[in-house]
Amino acid sequence: MLTQRRIEIFKTIVREFIDTAEPVGSKTLIEKYGLNYSSATVRNEMSALEKMELIEKTHTSSGRVPSTKGYRFYVEHLMEDTHDEIIEKALVTVFNDRAKNVDEALKQGMDLLVQMTDLTTAVLGPDANHQRLQEIVLSKIDDQRAIVLFETDQPHSESRLFHLNGDLTFEDLEFTVNLFNQRLFGTTLTDVIPKMEAIRPILAETIKSYEKLFEAFANTIVRFYNDNVVFSGQSNLLNQPEFDNINKLKQLIAMMEDSALWREVSRGKGDMMLQTSKHSQTVWFDELAVVSSEIKLNDVKDNVRQLMIVGPSRMEYDRVVSLLEYVRKMVEEVYGSDEGE
């Protein structure tokens, strides 16, 4: 049974571990936080919290740390709504600058959160499964260079610079772009490359260096999948004491390079997930916590961004959840349509 005393002790353990990343003992709780209980009482209550699986013992210390289940309980029942007026005022300035497009504003806003929280942020772009190729635009820079811009209906764009020479002419690019626009308009990104294969023989009959050109176009389409996650402040995560082990560090770096993994996390996949509010959720996995919030932009179906704050499980949830929710509200007020609370 969770008595008021146990809740008080549990909240204090969470607060201390967030601040120090060190296992918490009864002596620290009494001396540092002035808990008005005897050492024996605190130890007994910590033992009860451990049996309830809200805290756990580490291998290297007699102290206790919050468990994943404990963090979920804290976020679900004990977290308080906090406001950081300094950050909120700075975010208002960022998102009220309508000269920026939404992705530029999001990047600047998330960079600001990195500076203020010492955590890592990420913006997950539209899912390639829900994007359609809208247009391919060719522009000539000079006699030696041309740029091809690939645009989807989200909007989401990728570009490719081409160097013009004897093997590749501007006319070759013009022919290819026109052909692709005719054959691929409205195709979902996941189906573009298979459809490109049907076009390959036409290019082979017309263009001398068609193989290199085909590969360049295909690689640009692939970038729509791989460039879907933009991180800020990765070093903050790498510097956390939880990841000072070289093997854990390698694992963390590999995870951050796996865009498919973050798409799964945005859908709630992990060791444990909690719907924090109507618009946000928290997922725990591999000693990480990811607080995320979905933003719907304009009236275009599936035109969404997933905002994430990534940190160790001992992150300051009260502050992080409130800040991310504030960013969501600001972005939807300026760039999208808020559906309300």
Could you walk me through the main structural features you see in this protein, from its secondary elements to its overall organization?
The chain has 341 residues and is α+β, with helices and mostly antiparallel strands. It has 3 domains: 63 residues, Orthogonal Bundle (Arc Repressor Mutant, subunit A), CATH 1.10.10; 151 residues, Beta-Lactamase, CATH 3.30.450.40; 96 residues, 2-Layer Sandwich (Enolase-like, domain 1), CATH 3.30.390. It contains 13 helices and 11 strands. Strand 9 and strand 10 form a beta hairpin. Helix 2 crosses helix 3, helix 6 packs antiparallel against helix 13 and helix 7 packs across helix 8. The two termini are 33 Å apart. The model has no long low-confidence stretch (mean pLDDT 87).
Task: Note the main attributes of this structure.
three-stranded antiparallel sheet, 3 domains, single chain, Enolase-like, domain 1, 11 strands, 341 residues, six-stranded antiparallel sheet
What is the structure about, briefly put?
By secondary structure, this protein is an alpha+beta fold. It has 13 helices and 11 strands. The chain folds into 3 domains: 4-66, Arc Repressor Mutant, subunit A (Orthogonal Bundle), CATH 1.10.10.10; 85-127 and 228-335, Beta-Lactamase (2-Layer Sandwich); 131-226, Enolase-like, domain 1 (2-Layer Sandwich).
